[in-house]
Amino acid sequence: MGATIWKGSIHFGDTDVPVKLHAAVKEERIQFHLLHRRDQVKLHQQMICAYEKIPVPTEAQVKGFEVEEGKYIIVDAAELEQTTPESSRMIDVHEFVRTGQIDPLFLERVYYLEPDVYSVGYNELAAALREMDVEGICTWTMRKRSYLGALQARGRILRLTTLRHADEVIAVKSLGLEDIPLSEKELKIGSDLIAQLTGPFQPQKFENEHQKKLQALIEKKARGEKIAVLRPTRLKPTTADELLQALEASLKKVA
Amino acid sequence: MSQKVVEIAGRRLSLSNLEKDLYPSHGFTKAHVLEYYRRIAPCILPHLKDRALTLKRYPEGVEKDFFFEKRCPPHPAWVETAEISRDDGERMTVCLVNNLETLMWVENLASLELHVPLARAGSPETPDSMVFDLDPGEQADILDCARVALILRDLLSRLGLACYVKTSGQKGLHVYVPLNCADISFEDTKTFTKTMAVVLQKNYPDLVTEKMAKEHRKGKVFINWSQNDSSKTMVCVYSLRARETPMVSFPLEWRELERLAGEGDPERLQVSHGEALGRAEKEGDLFHEVLVKKQRLPHL
Amino acid sequence: MAVQGIWSGTISFSLVAIPVQLVKAVNPGRVSFRLLHDKDYSPLARRMFCPKQEEMVPPEEIVRGYELAPDRYLPITDEELESVSPERSRTIEIVEFIDLNEVDPVYYDHPYYLVPLKGGEKPYRLLVEIMRRTSRAGLAKFVLAEREYLVAVKSTEGALALTTLHYHDEILPDEEISPKEGKVEALETGRMKKSITTMMADFNPGKYADERREKVMAILKKKAKKGAVEAPAGENVEGEGPPDLIAALEDIMRDVKKNR
């Protein structure tokens, strides 16, 4: 179990449930650094003045908001500090919504909630959310940032999922997709094909094989062996005319 | 909210929020904006073609926040794009407004103003025109810009260079010198325009400055030669501007500029969307020569 | 010109292959600042710097490296990285379909959309429609940059949405967090339920603005009235210009002035 990230108290009506936040996900991946090809020295990032082409140290950097090309409003640290939300230990639940109403596009990061030492009401809250099949929409402040989130019960555990703000989500509409007519036959065969290929979700079946292969490649190269370069291949696209034929052949293959 | 699906050149495009008041004090809605660009398309499209578009979007209208977008936002597959290198070396995908449907798509995103570089995306370091961006400082106005533009025209014509003028649609004027030659660089055009600006400043110290800093610009016309740069963009001719009323960056004939400068009414130097459409539909593209005329900077 | 998103390739299921590109589904909040040089407000660009040669390194001289030991790196080229799973770097192959309701949202990582490339419009539309009808999502693996992702592709409002999923072993177990005793006070649960009932609403994310962003925008607006600072022109052009050009222009200038 991960360390406690933050402590706070879930609040609504006359309910208060003190909890501790824990990460729900831990990612481990192979880290790469950027090197100078010539001498294989690790490179650093450096901010360069676009005008004088010289490195600019942190103390000579200011933040500007571009209002027009090349025109900036300068803000200093003190001004930005004013916008930092007041620190609080309250996870304020504003309302409850039916489970399933939140489009997964809004979901950002999941935290597990652990009852804090003297917490009462944790089990009851989990039971109430579970039995009513609802989740709470809440806001809180953590590490000088305010968050919007959903309070959920999963089994006996409470979770807090941070949510994106409405204007951060790009609407499907903006993609400008065309509506193309399909024949009933194409749809029928396509749907049958999906039915044939459907199975239960078994995440443990999928391993990060790539990570292992990459590790093997690194070891091989470190031993001084030559790496065969393989070109990625592209599949030949199925054209609109071939679609029905491809579906029929697919169905035959899996049936 | 109203939504309308239109089909242009066989491509379907869904237009939204058509009744949104984008110029509230003028009752000019998104539908009006789309209609303006649809009608001006024959004139504006050749000037947008193959240039990396910078969108200046006003989703809530001209009185509210706007944002610049250089990177092409999520787009239908038929929108043509180009890959360009940014200043920091990173690659970026930009939109090319090469047809009416793309123009309509861009306007559906409320990009009231269309800004493009002086070079085409395929040859980003080769300017096809040179520009003198005349920007009046405080206590100067578009009439002062007109005086400077007329002096510039005389100077350029003695160097054997034709030039063309358009309103910025705000307070200034833009003088374009068509080049359309493959062997010119922004370094050449920047050096040339800066030198011209320096000479003009020396000769007309009360009228002209070539210095960017605000304190030098009071009561004078700033010749912004630094626009001759691959990283800079100019508002496209025939683009709307996001001011209180929908004004247009519109080409003027030199004779007309002379006359208007003589009349002394700065307001007469502004071209509204309605006037722009009327004139463009009658007279065609007055800026056409900027795209085709081949000229070389004199080797002095 | 070719359309380029974050990635472009093919999504396939069984024998059907659809050319697509991957595009963003979410945009981080809008207030972004540019770092500027304090003395002249020139924008700053991020560059890679070699501490040994004390010089800026252009992109073509940069290579990825794996740290074998402190300060000892093994360079790995992009071609080598692509060779690890070449079949997956250009294809999102749906290996099976699932009911997305079976997926615990804790697996969700980052959302994208897929949009069809030229010629792929019809099969794309078909996949959207049959996944909608059957309420199924496709599972696939594909490689982006140096990472392999497990992804779920689903139908949403006529488009394909792709969500990267965490791998099973990246999900931390929650058993230890489980409350010690499973005792539930029914009376207390009932009281909470009453309270919840009075607070029921429909999910409307637009209601919750990002307050921080609004505060930043308010400050910017106030400051905008006082005017913005300007960065100098793209690069430093020294002096006044070539002397012979100045001389020639001055000549013409005299002539122009005489005739005005």
What's the gist of this structure?
The complex is a heterotrimer of chains A (255), B (300) and C (260). With 255 residues, chain A is of the alpha+beta class.
Structure description:
The complex is a heterotrimer of chains A (255), B (300) and C (260). Helix content of chain A is 22%, strand content 33%. Chain A has 255 residues and is α+β, with helices and mostly antiparallel strands. Among the domains of chain A are: 106 residues, Ku70, Chain: A, Domain 2; 66 residues, no CATH class. In chain A, helix 3 packs parallel to helix 5. Chain A starts with a strand and ends with a helix. The mean pLDDT of chain A is 87. Chain B is of the alpha+beta class. Chain B is 30% helix and 23% strand. Chain B contains 7 helices and 18 strands. Chain B has a 6-stranded mixed beta sheet with strand order 13-14-10-12-11-17. In chain B, strands 6-5-9-15 form a 4-stranded antiparallel beta sheet, with no helix packed on it. Chain B starts with a strand and ends in an 8-residue tail after the last helix. Chain C has 260 residues and is α+β, with helices and mostly antiparallel strands. A 7-stranded mixed beta barrel of chain C has the order 1-2-9-12-11-10-8. A two-stranded antiparallel sheet of chain C has the order 4-5. Chain C has a two-stranded antiparallel ribbon with strand order 6-7. Chain C is 25% helix and 33% strand. Chain C has 5 helices and 13 strands. Chain C starts with 6 loop residues before the first strand and ends with a helix. Chains A and C meet through strand 2, strand 3, strand 4, strand 5 and strand 6 of A and strand 1, strand 2, strand 3, strand 4 and strand 6 of C. Strand 6 of chain A pairs antiparallel with strand 13 of chain C. Chain C: Homodimer. Interacts with LigD. Chain C: It comes from Geomobilimonas luticola. Chain C: This is Non-homologous end joining protein Ku. Chain C: Keywords: DNA damage, DNA recombination, DNA repair, DNA-binding. Chain C: InterPro entries: DNA_bd_Ku70/Ku80, Prok_Ku, SPOC-like_C_dom_sf.
Number of helices of chain A: 5
Order of helices and strands of chain B: EEEEHEEEEHEEHEEHEEEEEHEHH
State the assembly state of the protein chains: heterotrimer
CA-to-CA gap between the ends of chain A? 45 Å
Largest sheet of chain A: 7 strands, mixed, barrel
Name the poorly predicted regions of chain B. Answer: none
Strand order of the largest sheet of chain A: 1-2-8-11-10-9-7
Number of helices of chain B: 7
Q: What characteristic shape of chain A results from the CA principal axes?
A: extended
- Quantity of strands of chain B, as a count: 18
The level of helicity of chain B is 25-40%
Q: What letter string, H or E per element, gives the SSE order of chain A?
A: EEEEEEHEEHEEEHHH
Q: What's the CATH topology label of the domain at 6-27 and 84-167 in chain A?
A: Ku70, Chain: A, Domain 2
What do the pLDDT scores of chain A average to? Answer: 87
Backbone shape of chain B: globular
β-strand amount of chain A: 25-35%
**Hey, roughly how much beta strand do the residues of chain B contain?**
15-25%
Radius of gyration of chain B: 19 Å
> CATH top level of the domain at 6-27 and 84-167 in chain A?
Mainly Beta
Structural class of chain B: alpha+beta
